[in-house]
Amino acid sequence: MPSIKTCVLVAAYLTCCSFHPPARADDTQPAKNFDGDLNEVQMLDEKNGWAVGRTSHAVYLLRTEDGGKSWADISPRPIQTKKPLVWPIADVALTFRLVDATHGWAGCIRSMEGPGDNMDLFSTDDGGKHWQANAFKSSVGTIISIQFVDKEHGFIQVVSDTVETGHDRKAIYRTVNGGRTWQTASDGEAKHPTEGALPYLGFSAPMVFRDDEDGWVGGTAEGDQQGFFFHTTDSGKTWQSQNFPLPQGTEFDHGDYDTPIFSGTQKMDGVMEVRFENRGSLQRAVVFYGTHDGGGHWEKTGTSPVEQSKPRYTSIAFADADHGWLLAGNEIFATTDRGATWTKINSSLPRGTSSGPGVIQFLDLTHGWVLVDDLEGPDDKGHLFAKSELLQTTDGGHTWTYCFGTKLDGTAPHGQ
User: Number of folded domains in the chain?
Assistant: First the structure.
């Protein structure tokens, strides 16, 4: 799932890059043994998962059946570009969502030469062996999130590519019949927004729905704007602000809200992070909030253990309401009390990866994966390029073994 910062950086690049999707014949077998770097990884269980993969000029949808050690191309349609693929464009060039081991969805960019109807939506019911083109259409822009709360009820989040203007148009679409048809739930078009739509100013993080009615969208600010955190109780039709007060005794002037993480059978327990900042002094703090009632009320649970004096990419994962992990560069911290306290783990991540972003995921208290990136550049045009490495743990993050990708420290990582 792309972060707020990733979505903003992508939009700045889209206007100068055009993707050309070659047709994939029905009888063409997916290429095996993908050789490239990974972006987003979503594991279903200890063996099976999907990912977005990238090479210098193409983006692919991939599947693993061996815990991430090898990946096969299952793209409904490979996405290619004539220009070198810079970081972090692959995060939004292809967006996917697994419903279960066999059912999944993928949104693929067709062309980014200009705004408009530029995404195609595909679905599979056999784990990506075959894909069906979906009738979904949107003139807003780019799909940044797809979510199904069950096989019948789902949502799509689309935003416009207007980073240079300090805003994006935010639209939410809904299906109640497994994606056969889609209706506009809300559209924050600047001149004629639907009643109760998401705000036009600021940039969206990916949405999350706890069920078919309750959903949240956070966002970041631009210029003198405020970040936002909105909640819907009517399946995305109307949205109400749930912004939190700025921390007392500080000089913070705004907060950026990321996507909440819900756990449990009924998804009543949730955790989210908010990044508060003073634009003048660049003072920063990352604060964690928790809920026990499905997001009706949020309370502060703790702060990030990472020094906030300089910008730094972080990623969090929670296996349940209390147990979580935070990835910052090549350092990992763990909490057992919903973020109130954090302990640094003496983990075996490769050195020299602190410059890039990363993604961490845990299935339970022991099994997890991290995808760490090392950024290269910028080149003479200001573009960044990334190499990635996927590692796996079976002991709660204390030791990590190499799975796939570029060995960032030159050798296969191992437990200490």
Answer: 1
